[in-house]
Amino acid sequence: MKLVDEFRDSAIAKRLASKLQARKTAAVNLMEVCGTHTVAIFKHGIRQILPQSVKLISGPGCPVCVTPNNDIDNAITLVQDTSVILTTFGDMMKVPGTSSSFQYEKAAGADIRVVYSVLDALQMARDNPDRKVVFLGVGFETTTPTIAAAILEAQRLKLNNFFLFPAHKVVPPAMRALLSSDDVKIDGFICPGHVSAIIGSKPYEFIAKEYGIPCVIAGFEPLDIMLAIDMLLDQIASGKSQIEIQYRRAVSAEGNVVALGILNRVFEVTDAYWRGIGEIPGTGLKLRAEYRKFDAKDVFGIESGYDTEKESCQCGDILRGILDPPSCSFFGKACTPEHPVGPCMVSSEGSCAAWYLYQ
Known about the structure:
It is built from 15 helices and eleven strands. Helix 2 (about 35-45) runs parallel beside helix 15. The protein has two domains: about 1-310, 3-Layer(aba) Sandwich (Rossmann fold); about 315-359, no CATH class. It is an alpha/beta fold. Helix 5 (about 100-105) links the parallel strand 3 (about 85-90) and strand 4 (about 110-115).
């Protein structure tokens, strides 16, 4: 593995920037489908070095942002039972539900705890045998294998007080949903590096074959992203539509077969609701029948229902690439990271938060 400094070499960056700026290309829209890419693009000023004809659009690549209000509301109902400890990652705490948030409920006395890993929640269940520990599983394919491994460990330990609230999402079918709508024209995808390290490049092949849209899987350093954009523009200029891997130091065509094996052993595909997009077939994950005893939704009798989004929040349009955050009348005024109206301003991977901090 090379040192990170080699992916931030200023001399190489200047040459690549000059090459990009010199390109004569028709107007194109390139969508990055990863919140980490969005943050890196803003942090390193990559938008500013591109020709005016090349527009970068942020897609639904923030798992916190696409988690619907209904999941948050249902998770909050769990802690009305004082025997329940609800565990979650820190970036979920301030995400507003329909009328409350985890942060507000914790301040009001609910036992909601921030963990850094699902294994922390698993240990919490072992340490508190008289309590029911629920882990809120929010994330894409990047983190889901670790959740699956925790379920297998809970079964091995014969824990009867550890549960998962599944709110996982699968990325490639959501990209199909974006391409099947008329909301925004997409000429190329910068595909997520973290997700692709697990699933590989093959799940994206339908994008090139069925829609004629090129894709490049990119790393997260400035040179990674600049090179990925250059590769996409090369494909567009030559009329090609392929799935290329720029992030070869972490991604292969097959992906991480061990991680995928664990994921597929524990989970099966289901439909899922995405904030701002709606229900997308085949984009969720649920526990297989033999592990359903760990499913908090089943154990606590939670009905999925329909999602209700706040009319005042335009996160849905931002997640679909229809609006840039500054186009929202609340951006930077009524909606800030300290007092967010919607999740795109909460998560460190959210488009609104990236615009607010760096733009």
